[in-house]
Write a structure and sequence with these properties.
The protein folds into three domains: 7-81, Uridine Diphospho-n-acetylenolpyruvylglucosamine Reductase, domain 2, CATH 3.30.43.10; 89-203, Uridine Diphospho-n-acetylenolpyruvylglucosamine Reductase, domain 3; 208-315, CO dehydrogenase flavoprotein, C-terminal domain (Enolase-like, domain 1), CATH 3.30.390.50. The strands form five sheets. The chain has a five-stranded mixed sheet, covered by helices on one side. Strand 6 (58-61), helix 2 and strand 7 form a beta-alpha-beta unit. It has helices at residues 44-54, 67-72, 108-113, 115-120, 122-128, 134-139, 142-148, 154-162, 179-182, 256-262, 269-282, 293-315, and strands spanning 7-8, 12-13, 19-22, 24-25, 36-40, 58-61, 80-83, 93-96, 99-103, 165-170, 173-178, 183-185, 188-189, 196-203, 208-216, 223-234, 237-246. The chain is α+β, with helices and mostly antiparallel strands and 320 residues long. Helix 10 packs antiparallel against helix 11 and helix 11 runs antiparallel to helix 12.
Length: 320
């Protein structure tokens, strides 16, 4: 492409080099974002102050693998981007009492390699192995995945299955939102205009097993359908269970009807299959280029059954 095909004005930098005003002008079929301003936050308090200053048209960016493509297509048009990559104090995975605490700036690659998560919830490893590719996993964050709120997001289904809690911080304090209430619609969350997701908390459940199953068109793609589950056993009885679904129109990325049908019952294949059937029936997928609705319902049922079977096997110490 030569200079006659596209014209881009050099960004203007403020003297302190923390703020850049970016004006883009593209012609022909070049995909460029709408004009935006750039800020870089040095701390959580700094990021919150910037959000308050710039108002509802400001967006946070960390990995940027979801937001920036949407900006290029002008599906998202924030007036200000606030870079939070310096918020390294929000990058951690640790046991905190009876829960596992995961900082919102934790990268996907860290989730994949975490010995804490491998010990308690193999579902994270299962899911991370089928999320995008190493380039995306090295930069993308768990907080960004939750806050992007894509209807096909893998970690949204994991969080819903595990009934995680999400910690949201503002200038006046913190509040906790259950994962099953966090997503209020496609690309919409419970996070307010001047708030930041800082932590994901997952209860530790001794005697449980978990798993994630996904069907995709090609490696690393968004799911055609995916299901995650955890099962806690007392002997052969299911004392607790969680089922998460993504890309199939499941409300709040979960299937409480299927969970209720299995909880308190023996972990027989017949009972697992009955719960999986309920999960498939309860979802509401849309027909698109990835397949018709009936196909996706079938996948939701089959993948839920596979995830439940593997979760039970792992809870019994039989599965890898």
């Amino acid at each position: 492409m030569d200079a006659r095909s596209a014209r881009v004005q050099t960004p203007r930098r403020d003297p302190d080099r923390r703020r850049v005003t970016c004006d883009h002008m593209g012609v022909l079929n070049v995909q460029t974002p709408a004009p935006f301003e750039y800020e870089r936050a040095g701390s959580v308090d700094d990021a919150l102050a910037l959000l308050e200053r710039h108002g509802p048209e400001a967006r946070l960016v960390a990995g940027g693998h979801s937001l920036l493509p949407m900006m290029k297509l002008r599906l998202a048009r924030p007036e200000v981007l606030i870079d939070i990559n310096d918020l390294t104090d929000l990058s951690y995975i640790r046991l905190d009492g009876s829960a596992i605490a995961i900082g919102a700036m934790t990268r996907h690659a860290e989730l994949l390699d975490s010995p804490v998560l491998a010990e308690h919830y193999v579902i994270f490893r299962d899911a991370e192995q089928v999320i995008a590719d190493p380039i995306v996993r090295n930069r993308g964050t768990i907080g960004g995945s939750f806050c992007q709120a894509d209807p096909s997001e893998d970690l949204a289904a994991v969080g819903a299955a595990l009934r995680a809690d999400l910690v949201v911080r503002s200038a006046t304090g913190t509040r906790t939102v259950p994962a099953r209430e966090f997503h209020t619609g496609p690309y919409e969350t419970a996070v307010g205009d001047a708030e930041i997701l800082t932590e994901i908390r997952v209860p530790v459940r001794p005697g449980s097993g978990s798993a994630y199953e996904k069907v995709e068109r090609r490696a690393g793609d968004w799911a055609i359908a995916a299901a995650g589950a955890f099962v806690t056993l007392d002997g052969d009885t299911v004392t607790d269970v969680g089922i998460g679904l993504t890309a199939v129109g499941a409300e709040h990325f979960c299937s409480p009807e299927a969970e209720d049908a299995l909880r308190g019952r023996p972990a027989t294949d017949e009972n697992l299959a009955a719960a999986a059937q309920l999960a498939g029936t309860a979802c509401n997928p849309s027909a698109d280029q990835r397949g018709p609705a009936d196909y996706k319902r079938h996948l939701a049922q089959e993948l839920t059954l596979r995830a439940l079977r593997r979760s039970v096997a792992r809870a019994r110490g039989e599965g890898a």
